[in-house]
Write a structure and sequence with these properties.
The complex is a heterodimer.
Chain A: H1 3-10, H2 15-28, E1 31-47, E2 54-69, E3 72-79, H3 83-97, H4 102-129
Antiparallel strand pairs in A: 1-2, 2-3
Helix pairs in contact in A: 2-3
Chain B: H1 10-25, H2 33-39, H3 41-51, E1 53-54, H4 56-65, H5 70-81, E2 86-89, E3 93-94, E4 99-104, H6 137-149, H7 166-172, H8 200-208, H9 212-223, E5 232-245, E6 258-277, E7 283-295, H10 299-313, H11 324-328, H12 333-342, H13 348-362
Antiparallel strand pairs in B: 4-5, 5-6, 6-7
Helix pairs in contact in B: 2-4, 3-4, 3-5, 4-5, 8-10, 9-10
Classes of the chains: A alpha+beta, B alpha+beta.
Chain lengths: 142, 366
């Protein structure tokens, strides 16, 4: 699983799930802290849809942490003040970077999380779709 | 005229500052940041939008510290953001990646994918609910449970509600000009001083972080005759943009990007009739799009921005709402409220000089 798909799932997982995975990383690998979890900003660049040009919409507060396993860096970065999640994500990212044997074991449980999130989204969207307007033309009074 | 420093107010200032906390706490009740975050959703959206900083938790804390004063909360967030490092720029957010929660059109009844009202006050009777004063945690839990139990998985519902833009339909019919993809690096008003004439990226950045009531006021003035723009909302969307950043090691590799979460925004495309110059001096009526976007659910502001986007595109109309210096210099919350409120700070020396001038004139001196 590539990082884009992996982070799309992991960022939306709860802390307990992420801690389970990161505990396994800590017990299997020698982890060195590079940057303690801290706050920083990410500037959001948007393409406006009127003239297809770019502009800066806003900055987003993010929590970020960096760790190292062997000679590979793991980055955990997430919107909000989420130091613990940023730390867990950095350990998991580092495990993927060093191609840890844990990855193979994680694959099915991460896919299970992906499926849970898919169902939650469909449920949330089903609620939104209840507000879809069913236009009917009213009778015209003469 | 020089400024003269004075002293003697230090004790008074310290006591005045102590009173701020006392005023907030004297009833021995408090509202937690989590409570503000849970119950003041739209206020938080407004503060984030004007501060140009997306952080619900910080916006809630700023509202608490500012005792509900939005200008104070925006000021606090703008000041705080200047202390944080900006380490990343996002991958370009494309408008069609929005996960939609609400989508309406005032221009067309039937739009591909349909219109979803989502969450909004538009069709609610604005009757004051006196029972809200007595709402209990038990009531809340009961309502939430009933609501959630009532959600049935609707067959055929997508995981991501994403639909084509209404404006695309008009483009296909040749009623809207096509613009090629423009990847020119945007200017950043937080890094560079504004100079006139501005570029589009500067205008959009200033408008989206503009003071909500200021943006609304100028857009309304434009509608009432102090401008030429009267739009029809082609589409208003509320939803979430996913945000990605590049892998520092392999910035070109899309598959290695980091997803960092999502931000909720309101996006508006307004249709505005414009005259287009054709061959042999002929003119033809066509449509242009006014673009508006604001953090959170901030619908009036996003519509207003779409109006001002167009008034500023037509700089020669002669109306104040087309004067970019007039619009862009006066809608920023920190600049406008900061300048106005400085007027109550001591101006003893400057006022004495004015007073002397008036006395001289009264005495018949030059």
């Amino acid at each position: 699983m590539k990082r884009r798909e992996q982070t799309e799932i992991l960022v939306n997982c709860d802390e307990v799930f992420l801690k389970q995975l990161s505990d396994e990383v800590e017990s299997c690998h020698d982890v060195k802290m590079i940057d303690e979890p801290g706050l920083s900003l990410t500037m959001v660049k948007v393409r406006e849809s009127a003239q297809n040009s770019l502009f800066y919409l806003c900055e987003v507060l993010v929590s970020e942490c960096r760790v190292q396993i062997d000679n590979k860096i793991g980055i955990g970065i997430i919107i909000g003040s989420e130091f613990r999640k940023a730390y867990y994500l950095s350990l998991i990212d580092a495990a993927y970077s060093v191609k840890s044997p844990l990855i193979e074991k994680w694959e099915p449980i991460i896919k299970e999380e992906k499926e849970k999130q898919r169902i939650q989204r469909i449920k949330a969207n089903s609620s939104i779709m209840k507000t879809k307007i069913d236009f009917e033309t009213m009778d015209v009074e003469i | 005229m020089a400024y003269v420093a004075v002293k003697g107010g230090q004790y008074a200032i310290e006591e005045s500052i102590r009173r701020i906390k006392y005023e907030r706490l004297k009833d021995k009740r408090f509202v937690s940041v989590k409570d503000i975050q849970a119950g003041m959703r739209l206020m938080i959206d407004q503060v984030m939008s004007e501060a140009s900083l997306y952080s619900k938790e910080l916006a809630a804390a700023a509202i608490k510290q500012g005792e509900g004063s939005l200008e104070e909360a925006v000021f606090l967030l703008r000041a705080y953001r200047s202390t944080l490092p900006r380490k990343y720029y996002s991958i370009i957010v494309e408008s069609d990646t929005m996960r939609i929660e609400r989508r309406i059109s005032a221009a067309f009844k039937d739009i591909p994918g349909g219109q979803m009202l989502g969450t909004n006050f538009d069709y609610k009777h604005r009757l004051f609910d006196l029972n809200i004063e007595n709402e209990t945690l038990e009531d809340i839990e009961k309502y939430v449970k009933e609501f959630e139990d009532n959600i049935e998985m609707m067959e055929g519902t997508d995981e991501y509600l994403q639909f084509p833009k209404v404006a695309d339909y008009l483009r296909q019919q040749g009623l809207l000009a096509e613009f090629p993809i423009n990847d020119e690096a945007p200017k950043d008003v937080t890094k560079e001083q504004l100079s006139f004439p501005t570029v589009r990226s500067e205008r959009l950045q200033i408008l989206t972080r503009g003071m909500t009531q200021g943006v609304n006021t100028l857009a309304y003035a434009s509608l009432r005759g102090y401008g030429t723009v009267h739009p029809t909302v082609a589409e208003l969307r509320v939803g979430a943009f996913p945000i990605y950043i590049a892998d520092p090691v392999a910035p070109e590799d899309e598959e290695e990007q980091y997803y960092i979460g999502e931000i909720k925004v309101t996006e508006v495309e307004s249709l505005i009739p414009v005259m287009v110059q054709k061959d042999e001096g002929k003119k033809e009526i066509n449509f242009a799009i006014g673009y508006g976007i604001a953090l959170g659910q901030n619908e009036t502001k996003a519509i207003s921005m779409s109006i001002l986007d167009q008034t500023l595109e037509n700089k020669d109309s002669g109306f104040p709402t087309s004067d970019e210096e007039f619009v862009l210099y006066h809608i920023d919350s920190v600049e406008a409220t900061g300048f106005i409120s400085h007027l109550k700070l001591p101006h003893y020396v400057t006022f004495q000089a004015k007073l002397n001038d008036v006395r001289k004139i009264k005495r018949g001196e030059n």
